[in-house]
Amino acid sequence: MGSVSHAAMISSSKLSYGGGISYNKYKNPQLRTSVVSLRNWRASSRNLGVLAAQIGNKEIDFSDPDWKTKYQRDFESRFNIPHITDVFPDADPIPSTFCLKMRTPVMEDFAGGYPSDEEWHGYINNSDRVLLKVIHYSSPTSAGAECIDPNCTWVEQWVHRAGPREKIYFKPEEVKAAIVTCGGLCPGLNDVIRQIVITLEIYGVKKIVGIPFGYRGFSDEGLSEMPLSRKVVQNVHLSGGSLLGVSRGGPSVSDIVDSMEERGINMLFVLGGNGTHAGANAIHDECRRRRMRVAVVGVPKTIDNDILMMDKTFGFDTAVEEAQRAINSAYIEAHSAYHGIGIVKLMGRNSGFIAMHASLASGQIDICLIPEVPFHLHGPLGVLRHLKFLIETKGSAVLCVAEGAGQVWPFDETEVEFPKFFVEKREEKVFVLVELGVEFIVDRKGALNMFMMQNFLGRTNATDASGNTVLGDFGVHIQQETKKYFKEIGVHADVKYIDPTYMIRACRANASDGILCTVLGQNAVHGAFAGYSGITVGICNTHYVYFPIPEVISYPRAVDPNSRMWHRCLTSTGQPDFV
Ligand SMILES: Nc1ncnc2c1ncn2[C@@H]1O[C@H](COP(=O)(O)OP(=O)(O)OP(=O)(O)O)[C@@H](O)[C@H]1O
Ligand SMILES: O=P(O)(O)OC[C@H]1O[C@](O)(CO)[C@@H](O)[C@@H]1O
Ligand SMILES: [Mg+2]
To answer: Cα-flanking dihedrals φ and ψ of residue 92, to 5°?
Structure first.
């Protein structure tokens, strides 16, 4: 920390812990837009992510009567989706070959012209938009309020509607499409692969390949591309995993683009999480720099559900459903034992969505711990003390913990002086906020890593092949601490620990994820044919949309501890505040 040079010092007065904070307490207008994020500042991941993102954005002067118009204009340009004509203004579109009247998808060389159906009203107009936010919060103190200004003014924010366009910018016979799956496994990967292949064939594409084992497949000799067709993918969705394999780490962006040039790939579909999307965006930028006529389209894959702005990502629903089995087993074990305590660890590195939703769904959880909500393990207000209470009153207890929980230590004070915030722009996209021995790092991938000087598991500098921080195992830690605690107080406790994380991730998609994957896969292909690149597909307020990649990965989406959903979870578990 001593090495940190402070590019900006922002002064403020007292920040009340967990309570509201008024705008005028911040003297520097540059941070005004961030104050809402700090209202419940214990929601460190989300709020500091928002804060970091906002520091990177332009300041808003709310005293300007035109601020709203300016904000909307700025929003429109941020959410504009890159198009092939940005680089090749003379690119000529052709009528779409996506024609549902057609009965023979892979056609003979388009000798009789491209099939089209001008009478069909199934195309999306490029100007169609979907509303991003649908709640009008009348006050910043409303649960889950996401406000732009201190009055929580209603500001319409529109994003691009996904779907097939009447004009396309690629001739199907000139397309070589590639699909790559990166990062960890996720239920539904095969469903998306399958649907991309099927839709490409309906457009008339014959050259479709899978890149094996993530980005690594672009560079590793001995890994050859896998030819794909409807026949090959017909039944792949019936099993979990990825037909193509996945990996972390891999070649540089420039090596990937070299490889794409060599292979003649001009449509790339990238299935992965934040890291993969950062890679996809960099590939898109590099293709543009080299003036390649290429479409790079992402499909967000993460059981953690940590991609911004989307209702949910595919695989999440299945993960929550599958987690029920583990929770139910833990419940049965705990209830059948004398003073039984069941602990279930679920995935969620930065975000507790799986743990929160699985707890809500099961109705069997007494304590849910997630990364976004700091808690004490020990002490009069701690989790262990509450466990003792549950054993004394109910005779058993079940805990659901997210893997990223407990990596942050809460402050002991109820009020914290914030004499200054130190903000350093270390490299591009890297911010370090240092306060009271707390270091928050938004790394080069836009992921937020939080470290507090004291944490449960000790600070680790270890990273995986992709540069993700390797977390300490909180599930094992809380299991050990629980056993130790009950031994020390001389109360019998039968502690059973279940870690179903990889079993959950390897499942095949359930019905609702199957539908989501199908629609996302189809829309990815429609986006590429429409000439868009550097985009990703998502579901937003039940409608399907295209986002520019940087907007959805600027920081990981996290549970808002002031959201109705978290409040519902607390209502359901009946757990107290552990701070
Ligand atoms: N900033 C980046 N620029 C280019 N490539 C990146 C970047 N970050 C990650 N990658 C690459 O993306 C791939 C996947 O990244 P990562 O392992 O972080 O998984 P992910 O996509 O975030 O998925 P998961 O949700 O499973 O973690 C890796 O091959 C990694 O090298
Ligand atoms: O063991 P791996 O492949 O690194 O994956 C573990 C990570 O994958 C995730 O499920 C994200 O996909 C995280 O929740 C988890 O930390
Ligand atoms: Mg990731």
So the answer is: -95, 130
Q: What is the 3-class SS of 424-449, one letter each residue?
A: EECCCCCEEEEECCEEEEECCCCCEE
pTM confidence score: 0.85
Pair 351, 364 in one domain: yes
DSSP code string of 513-545: HHHHHHHHHHHHHHHHHTTB-SEEEEEETTEEE
308, part of any domain: yes
Q: Which residue's CA is the closest to the ligand 2 atom numbered 5?
A: 184
Determine whether the shortest distance from the Cβ of 445 to ligand 1 is under 6 A.
Answer: yes
Cα 304 to Cα 301: distance, rounded to the nearest angstrom:
9
Whether residue 331 sits in one domain with residue 364: yes
CATH of the domain at 475: 3.40.50.460
The residue contributing the CA closest to ligand 2 atom 10 is 347
Among 349, 356, 470, 499, the mutation site with the greatest number of ligand 2 atoms within 8 A of its Cβ is 349
* Encoded amino acid at 311, one letter: D
**Nearest CA residue ID for atom 3, ligand 1:** 279
Distance 536 CA to ligand 3 centre (A): 15
Is the predicted ipTM greater than 0.95, yes or no? yes
**Per-residue pLDDT tens digits for 440-493:** 433 333 333 333 323 445 445 678 899 887 778 889 999 999 999 999 999 999
Question: Which of 505, 553, 557, 559 for mutating ligand 2's site (highest number of atoms within 8 Å of CB)?
Answer: 505
Return the active site residues.
304
Do 100 and 131 lie in a common domain? no
For residue 523, being part of any structural domain is answered with: yes
Q: Identify whether residues 491 and 516 lie together within a single domain.
A: no
**Residue 350 near ligand 1, beta carbon < 6 Å:** no
What's the CA-to-centroid distance between 200 and ligand 2, angstroms? 30
DSSP string over 181-242: E-SS--TTHHHHHHHHHHHHHHHT--EEEEETTGGGGGT-TT---EE--HHHHTTGGGSSS-
State if residue 164 touches ligand 1 by the CB under 6 angstroms criterion.
no
Residue pointed to by tokens 């449509």:
267
| Counted domains in the chain | 3
Which of the residue ranges 57-66, 219-228, 270-279, 546-555 would you say has the lowest mean pLDDT?
Answer: 57-66
- Do 407 and 268 fall into the same domain? no
**295 and 342 co-located in one domain:** no
Enclosing domain of residue 80: 61-84+127-161
Token look-up 């590099």 returns 286
- Tens of pLDDT along 155-182? 999 999 999 999 999 999 999 999 999 9
Provide the β-strand partners of residue 536.
298, 547
